[in-house]
Sequence to fold (203 residues):
Amino acid sequence: MADSKPREDVFEVFESGELKGRGLRALKSLAPGDKVLESTPSVYVLSNSVRGQYCDFCFAKSEDLQRCSKCKFARYCNRECQKSAWKDHKTECERILNVSPNIPTDLVRLMAKIMQHQQLQAYTALVSHQKEFDHERREALSAILTVLNRFLGEKDFQKTSSGELFNLFGKISCNSFTICDAELQPLGKYSNTVMSEHHKGAM
Fold:
């Protein structure tokens, strides 16, 4: 589970209705730079667009990254990061080998990690907004699920119903965030079962 800690002396959680979910509001004026929320990601992925430049585990930039000896996909800045990542990467490593030379998208990898960690139940309280999906969005989801099926393998894919996957897609779309470097350049995506709803754009 993610660890999200708003400062209780400064913020309060409020309900904004069934369609909007929960919100977070300040109890007093805030100065620029005040910390609003600390949150540790439930799952995260390095973006394919910067692969080869940053470590898959700690996101440190390096010109001397070490590839995973099996899948050749994941890269790490040192042996320590590779060892720390192995518990999470082990399953993904096999899946990447199974679909090689195809490369799964960031969203497919993020969804697969959530399912791998059996965190679907943790997303129950979040709103999927699936009723607001237009035809184009639904078509995009169908294409994503096709890729996800190949990536997970038929056996693991069928463990989750199509309805649950549809809900998960909507919830990730609304509750996912971009990981940026100090210059606000995007490096990856993470998803959290945070205590408030976030109306973000599509991934």
In short: The beta strands are 3-6, 11-15, 22-26, 37-40, 43-46, 66-67, 75-76, 176-180, 186-191. The chain has one domain: 3-191. The two ends are 22 Å apart (CA to CA). The longest strand covers residues 186-191.
